[in-house]
Specification:
400 residues; alpha/beta; Aspartate Aminotransferase, domain 1; Aspartate Aminotransferase, domain 2; 15 strands; globular; binds pyridoxal-5'-phosphate
Amino acid sequence: MDPVYLDNNATTRTDPRVVETMLPFFTEQFGNASSMHAFGAQVGDALGKARKQLQALLGAEFDHEIVYTSGGTEADNAAILSALETQVGRDEIITSAVEHPAVLSLLAHLEKIGRAKVHIIGVDSMGRLDMEAFSEALSPATAIVSIMWANNETGTIFPVEQLAGLAHRVGALFHTDAVQAVGKLPIDLSSSQIDMLSLSGHKLHGPKGIGALYVRKGVRFRPLIRGGHQERGRRAGTENVPGIIGLGKAAELALEYMAEEQTRVAALRDRLEKGLLQRIGNSFVTGDPSSRLPNTSNVAFEYIEGEAILLLMNREGIAASSGSACTSGSLEPSHVLRAMNVPYTAAHGAIRFSFSRENTDTDVDRVIEAMPPIIERLREMSPFWRERDKQAAGFNPTYA
Ligand SMILES: *Cc1c(COP(=O)(O)O)cnc(C)c1O
């Protein structure tokens, strides 16, 4: 049987059309865009076209608002570190408790070395930002607000436009980690207040090792990486030509499939959730049902371990991911579910199913069929399951 891949928020398959577009740039068209000969000129033209393709996906007004990076992580780091330099006299940063480690561990480091004061804003049980705490944290000392567009674990979408407006009122810059949003949600930066936005190629059927930071025209920027004059001096180093070309093609395809993402992919996700919740008791969906990515579902199966579920799923040829990360032998539930106050008994058994345009109805049927016996088998072995009536739930999912 074909494997079922439902871990697209971790990475996507590079679209074969993307690979095909990239291949000549490893062979015949190997030039360096900076060179003063035909080899370079050819590549320069292709890079220009790829930039336009990405610009179109973002609705960016100017192509030079795009700075290519090695991925989402570098884009996040570049945005935040730039703001600390350009926003003279401001050393506070506001973020959310559910950001990707690309943001959270950088901020923890900046705080530790005394470079910035960081405000981490909490979320409610559906993963929605605490707007009151957010507004209270804003001040004339705020250099930058960095809040993700959509969460990678639950799919919860944040009101980035509103947050950008609030940030601007105190003169702060607004950055969003949109790695999970780009290609899944329509984006039009020409009519937006967002100052900086991060994206990553491999999350939208593009290659790994390429991403971009959008920097709105007029927003001052200090490079993270210094050297040559590539990217108008904003990111030195010979361009990752095949990567940039591949990201351009991936962006073009993402625009083409955008409507399908909203309809067919969302319908697959909804059918999976319905099927699982109907067949498996003591399970619920986490995240905000009214404001969620079309491709993401995070289902908590109470009283069992996510890692064990994944192992048995893997035996059935089904790939997904769990919120927990095995650190030093102790299984800690994900920081996202902990921030949402999902009780440990449920957070431990959370599984993220993330779809893409490559998934089919057959995939959903396979998972709906495979999961009930897996969950039942693990619960039979679980002391927590046997003791469940004695445990106070303390958590009332509004959506089950
Ligand atoms: C994957 C991901 C990143 C990191 O992107 P890379 O290109 O792998 O560095 C950052 N933020 C979010 C929300 C992600 O999902």
